[in-house]
Amino acid sequence: MTNGARIVVDPDSGVAPWRQVHDQLVHLIRVAELPIGGRLPPIRQLARDLGLSAGTVARVYRELENTGVLHTARRNGTVVAAIPAADMDAATALSRAAAAYTDVARGIGATESDAVQAVRLAFARTDPS
Amino acid sequence: MYAVVGLAVLLVLWPTESSGRRFLRRWGVSDPDERQTALAVSYLRNRRLLYPPLLLLGPALADVAIDRPGDPGFLTLLAPVIVALLLAETIGALRKPTGPRIAALTKRHWRDLAPRWAMATMLTLAATAVGLAVAGLIAQPWANRIAAAIPRDGVWTYPDGSGSWTVPVLVLSELTRPSSVITLAGIAIGLAAVLGLVRLAVRRRPIGDPRLDAALRTRTARVAVGIGIAWMAAMVVLANNRLTFLRTFYPPSEFPSAPSWLAYTSAGNFLGVLLLFVAAAGWIWAANPPRRLPYVEAAR
User: Fold this and answer.
1) ipTM of this predicted complex?
2) A93 and A50 within one domain
3) How far apart are CA B92 and CA B199, in angstroms?
4) What pLDDT, in 10s, does the model give residues B109-164?
5) Residue A13, domain CATH
6) Which of A6, A9, A39 sits opposite B104 (nearest CB)?
């Protein structure tokens, strides 16, 4: 049964479609239009309805899963798992920076522990205390 | 004749602003605005414009395959409606979206659009038709043996020359006619069209705002299943007519006797009236909007 929440994507707005979908989902969850436990449509349905590629919508779902806002289980599909915190933008920024850093680390053949060690060293070097 | 009927249907059903508004109110959009009305008129027009050419084409194809005296001719009227719906939905599904796109954040399922009882009725009728058509197929070798033993002119002479038995040429050709295969093909095509339409109603891109979209999806799915019920009832009648024909064909005792089980298929004779009722009731209940349309009402 529909909950009435909806997403509008304007391809002429100048904002990337995935960003429009992402931001509107975050907003709908924050204002409780999408409650915790609420089910989201399958990626392919949402992509078809919005005229986007499935990969674009999958990216949004993945990003929100990485930040704990959404949870995908085979049986229940994708559900809202948590309300994005007020500082979620910072968390998202951190998540994105981490993803970019991971890409660089993988690109030069570094292992996960090498990459984490490098982050710790960087924190230690720049520690104000 | 069919072209005239098609044009008359088109004239009578040609959607106008007021009929579009009325249509939307029936399907759960209580106070349609101008944009919603325009989209509804275009939805109806796209489908109804296809009626005249399809009404012309339908009987020509049906003459070749299904329709003949004694068979339910309304198949040739049902087919254009379902093909028009199918074509329009397919075009709608393939059309590239322009401008802002709106998506409701709810998983859509066919159960939201078409009633389960209607789908179950259609599938039960289809299964019944398949059963009767398969019985016709099983009896077909006997009919072929009889036909092979009768000369082409239909006049068969008793071996002792004491007289002859005449079979009308039309009856002779009917004996070998692959009616059961045609019925099975009709069932398969009908099922594919109806289930394909329901799938398209679930999957196609949205039209307009969520409420209008929900109303149009629901209407497409319900009309498709309504036609499906009537179509499958017609298929049961076709398959039963074949069995009746074989059962009531009495060759002289010199010919191979009919399979004994064929006599029991006479129980299917009461099906005609019953199925007429089922087809009519199914069409009315499934293809018309019920008092409450929860899926449409919940969309906003």
Assistant:
1) 0.70
2) no
3) 13
4) 999 999 999 999 999 999 999 999 999 999 999 999 999 999 988 899 988 888 88
5) 1.10.10.10
6) A6
Q: Are residues A100 and A65 in the same domain?
A: no
A33 and A95, same domain (yes or no): no
Is A28–B105 a contact, with Cβ atoms under 8 angstroms apart? yes
For residue A74, the model assigns a pLDDT of: 78
Rounded to whole angstroms, the Cα distance separating B222 from B124 reads 17
Residues of A in contact with B216 (CB under 8 A): none
H or E stretch covering B205: none
b/e A50-75 (16+ beta carbons within 10 angstroms → b): bbbeeebbbbbbebbeebebbbeeee
| Single pTM value for the model | 0.78
CB B114 within 8 A of CB B198: yes
Q: Which residues span the domain enclosing A31?
A: 2-84
Q: Are residues A71 and A104 in the same domain?
A: no
Q: What is the mean pLDDT of residues B264-291?
A: 83
Look at residue B77 in the predicted model and tell me its pLDDT: 64
> Do A106 and A71 fall within a single domain?
no
What Rg do the C-alpha atoms of chain B give, in angstroms? 24
A116 and A79 both lie in a single domain: no
Specify the residue for token string 């289980």.
Answer: A73
Q: Any idea which residue has 């009896």 for tokens? A: B139
Q: Using CA coordinates, name the residue in chain A closest to B213.
A: A49
Who's near B49: CB < 8 A, 6+ residues apart?
Answer: B10
From the list A5, A9, A12, which residue is nearest B105 (CB)?
A: A5
